Amino acid sequence: MTKADIRRHYKARRAALSPADVAALSEQLAELFFADDQIRAYLNVPNAVLHTFLPIRRQQEVDTWHIIRRLRAEWPQIVVLSSITDPATHALTSFRLTPDTILTENRWGIPEPAGPVDTNVPTPTLVLVPLLAFDTQGHRVGYGGGYYDRFLSQLPRMCQTIGLSFFPALSRLDSIEPTDVPLTACIEPAQVVKWSLFNEKS
Prior knowledge:
Strand content: 15-25%
Order of helices and strands: HHHEHEEEEEEEHEEEH
Mean pLDDT: 92
Structural class: alpha/beta
Radius of gyration: 16 Å
Strand order of the largest sheet: 3-2-1-6-9-10-11
Low-confidence stretches: none
Largest sheet: 7 strands, mixed
CATH class: Alpha Beta
Number of domains: 1
CATH architecture: 3-Layer(aba) Sandwich
Helix content: 25-40%
CATH topology: Rossmann fold
Number of helices: 6
Shape: globular
Protein backbone atom coordinates (compact mmCIF):
# COMPACT_ATOMS: atom_id res chain seq x y z
CA MET A 1 0.00 0.00 0.00
CA THR A 2 1.07 3.58 -0.61
CA LYS A 3 1.19 6.01 2.30
CA ALA A 4 -2.13 7.44 1.12
CA ASP A 5 -3.64 3.94 1.17
CA ILE A 6 -2.22 3.32 4.65
CA ARG A 7 -3.66 6.61 5.92
CA ARG A 8 -7.12 5.73 4.61
CA HIS A 9 -6.95 2.20 6.00
CA TYR A 10 -5.79 3.12 9.49
CA LYS A 11 -8.08 6.13 9.78
CA ALA A 12 -10.94 3.71 9.06
CA ARG A 13 -9.63 1.22 11.63
CA ARG A 14 -9.41 3.94 14.27
CA ALA A 15 -12.86 5.30 13.40
CA ALA A 16 -14.26 1.82 14.02
CA LEU A 17 -13.06 1.88 17.64
CA SER A 18 -15.60 2.75 20.30
CA PRO A 19 -14.83 5.44 22.92
CA ALA A 20 -14.43 2.59 25.43
CA ASP A 21 -11.90 0.90 23.10
CA VAL A 22 -9.89 4.12 22.75
CA ALA A 23 -9.86 4.67 26.51
CA ALA A 24 -8.85 1.08 27.30
CA LEU A 25 -6.13 0.92 24.65
CA SER A 26 -4.76 4.33 25.65
CA GLU A 27 -4.52 3.20 29.25
CA GLN A 28 -2.81 -0.01 28.14
CA LEU A 29 -0.18 1.96 26.20
CA ALA A 30 0.38 4.21 29.23
CA GLU A 31 0.92 1.18 31.47
CA LEU A 32 3.52 -0.20 29.07
CA PHE A 33 5.22 3.20 28.92
CA PHE A 34 5.67 3.38 32.68
CA ALA A 35 6.52 -0.31 33.09
CA ASP A 36 9.50 -0.17 30.73
CA ASP A 37 12.76 0.02 32.68
CA GLN A 38 14.65 1.99 30.03
CA ILE A 39 11.88 4.54 29.64
CA ARG A 40 11.66 4.91 33.43
CA ALA A 41 15.42 5.48 33.50
CA TYR A 42 14.95 8.36 31.07
CA LEU A 43 12.17 9.79 33.23
CA ASN A 44 14.51 9.72 36.22
CA VAL A 45 17.33 11.59 34.48
CA PRO A 46 17.89 15.01 36.09
CA ASN A 47 16.23 17.80 34.08
CA ALA A 48 14.15 15.35 32.03
CA VAL A 49 11.79 17.07 29.58
CA LEU A 50 8.92 15.24 27.88
CA HIS A 51 7.19 16.61 24.79
CA THR A 52 3.80 15.10 24.03
CA PHE A 53 1.07 15.51 21.48
CA LEU A 54 -2.44 16.14 22.80
CA PRO A 55 -5.15 13.84 21.43
CA ILE A 56 -7.40 14.92 18.57
CA ARG A 57 -10.68 13.42 19.77
CA ARG A 58 -12.35 13.44 16.36
CA GLN A 59 -9.43 11.42 14.96
CA GLN A 60 -9.66 8.82 17.76
CA GLU A 61 -6.02 9.45 18.67
CA VAL A 62 -4.26 7.84 21.60
CA ASP A 63 -5.28 9.67 24.77
CA THR A 64 -1.96 10.90 26.14
CA TRP A 65 -3.65 12.40 29.21
CA HIS A 66 -3.19 9.01 30.90
CA ILE A 67 0.57 9.60 30.70
CA ILE A 68 0.45 13.33 31.45
CA ARG A 69 -1.61 12.90 34.64
CA ARG A 70 0.65 10.16 35.98
CA LEU A 71 3.77 12.20 35.24
CA ARG A 72 2.33 15.12 37.20
CA ALA A 73 1.55 12.82 40.14
CA GLU A 74 4.72 10.72 40.25
CA TRP A 75 7.37 12.76 38.39
CA PRO A 76 6.38 16.36 39.17
CA GLN A 77 9.95 17.49 38.48
CA ILE A 78 9.63 16.61 34.78
CA VAL A 79 8.90 19.53 32.47
CA VAL A 80 6.01 18.63 30.15
CA LEU A 81 5.77 20.34 26.78
CA SER A 82 3.27 20.24 23.95
CA SER A 83 3.09 22.21 20.72
CA ILE A 84 1.16 24.75 18.66
CA THR A 85 0.72 23.95 14.96
CA ASP A 86 1.59 26.67 12.46
CA PRO A 87 -0.01 25.80 9.09
CA ALA A 88 1.81 28.63 7.32
CA THR A 89 5.26 27.20 8.05
CA HIS A 90 4.30 23.56 8.76
CA ALA A 91 6.22 23.95 12.02
CA LEU A 92 5.52 23.11 15.65
CA THR A 93 6.14 25.68 18.40
CA SER A 94 6.65 24.07 21.80
CA PHE A 95 5.10 25.45 24.95
CA ARG A 96 5.16 24.51 28.63
CA LEU A 97 2.03 22.49 29.47
CA THR A 98 1.02 23.00 33.10
CA PRO A 99 -2.12 22.17 35.12
CA ASP A 100 -3.11 25.82 34.70
CA THR A 101 -2.89 25.80 30.89
CA ILE A 102 -6.34 26.42 29.41
CA LEU A 103 -6.81 24.56 26.13
CA THR A 104 -9.22 24.94 23.25
CA GLU A 105 -9.53 22.99 19.99
CA ASN A 106 -8.34 24.63 16.79
CA ARG A 107 -10.09 24.07 13.45
CA TRP A 108 -8.44 20.63 13.08
CA GLY A 109 -9.51 19.59 16.56
CA ILE A 110 -5.98 19.92 17.98
CA PRO A 111 -5.99 21.13 21.60
CA GLU A 112 -3.97 24.35 21.81
CA PRO A 113 -3.59 27.09 24.44
CA ALA A 114 -6.48 29.52 24.71
CA GLY A 115 -4.17 32.30 25.92
CA PRO A 116 -0.50 33.26 26.21
CA VAL A 117 1.92 30.49 27.16
CA ASP A 118 5.61 30.09 27.91
CA THR A 119 7.40 29.19 24.67
CA ASN A 120 10.87 29.72 26.14
CA VAL A 121 11.29 26.04 26.89
CA PRO A 122 14.09 23.50 27.36
CA THR A 123 15.00 20.89 24.76
CA PRO A 124 13.03 17.64 25.06
CA THR A 125 14.75 14.47 26.20
CA LEU A 126 11.74 12.31 25.29
CA VAL A 127 9.05 12.92 22.66
CA LEU A 128 5.74 11.09 22.33
CA VAL A 129 4.95 10.99 18.62
CA PRO A 130 1.49 10.59 17.02
CA LEU A 131 1.05 8.24 14.10
CA LEU A 132 -1.46 6.30 12.06
CA ALA A 133 0.82 3.33 11.41
CA PHE A 134 4.45 2.28 11.72
CA ASP A 135 6.69 -0.50 10.41
CA THR A 136 9.19 -2.91 11.92
CA GLN A 137 12.08 -0.58 11.01
CA GLY A 138 10.70 2.37 13.00
CA HIS A 139 9.27 4.39 10.14
CA ARG A 140 5.87 6.00 10.74
CA VAL A 141 2.95 7.23 8.70
CA GLY A 142 1.35 10.42 9.99
CA TYR A 143 -1.25 12.70 8.48
CA GLY A 144 1.09 13.86 5.73
CA GLY A 145 1.80 17.45 6.73
CA GLY A 146 5.42 16.81 7.70
CA TYR A 147 5.09 18.70 11.00
CA TYR A 148 6.62 16.03 13.18
CA ASP A 149 9.37 15.05 10.74
CA ARG A 150 10.54 18.69 10.72
CA PHE A 151 10.30 18.83 14.50
CA LEU A 152 12.11 15.53 15.07
CA SER A 153 14.90 16.43 12.64
CA GLN A 154 15.82 19.40 14.87
CA LEU A 155 16.16 17.39 18.08
CA PRO A 156 19.53 16.34 19.52
CA ARG A 157 20.67 12.80 18.87
CA MET A 158 20.19 11.76 22.51
CA CYS A 159 16.45 12.51 22.48
CA GLN A 160 14.19 9.44 22.54
CA THR A 161 11.28 9.56 20.10
CA ILE A 162 8.51 7.14 21.06
CA GLY A 163 5.46 6.46 18.90
CA LEU A 164 2.11 5.40 20.34
CA SER A 165 0.03 3.00 18.24
CA PHE A 166 -3.27 1.20 18.71
CA PHE A 167 -2.19 -1.37 16.10
CA PRO A 168 0.86 -3.64 15.55
CA ALA A 169 3.64 -2.79 13.13
CA LEU A 170 3.44 -3.22 9.39
CA SER A 171 6.21 -5.39 7.98
CA ARG A 172 7.76 -2.60 5.93
CA LEU A 173 6.87 0.78 4.45
CA ASP A 174 8.04 1.01 0.84
CA SER A 175 7.68 4.74 0.24
CA ILE A 176 10.27 6.09 2.70
CA GLU A 177 11.42 9.61 1.86
CA PRO A 178 14.72 11.33 2.78
CA THR A 179 12.84 13.69 5.11
CA ASP A 180 11.22 10.84 7.09
CA VAL A 181 12.71 10.59 10.58
CA PRO A 182 12.54 7.10 12.14
CA LEU A 183 11.42 6.56 15.72
CA THR A 184 13.67 5.09 18.38
CA ALA A 185 10.76 3.10 19.89
CA CYS A 186 7.04 2.55 19.53
CA ILE A 187 4.48 1.29 22.02
CA GLU A 188 1.72 -0.95 20.69
CA PRO A 189 -0.87 -2.68 22.90
CA ALA A 190 1.14 -5.89 23.29
CA GLN A 191 4.68 -4.55 23.72
CA VAL A 192 7.27 -1.80 23.54
CA VAL A 193 9.17 -2.13 20.28
CA LYS A 194 12.67 -0.64 20.28
CA TRP A 195 15.22 -0.21 17.56
CA SER A 196 19.00 -0.13 17.74
CA LEU A 197 19.08 3.66 17.99
CA PHE A 198 17.18 3.52 21.31
CA ASN A 199 19.79 1.21 22.81
CA GLU A 200 22.64 3.28 21.41
CA LYS A 201 21.21 6.38 23.10
CA SER A 202 20.63 4.67 26.45
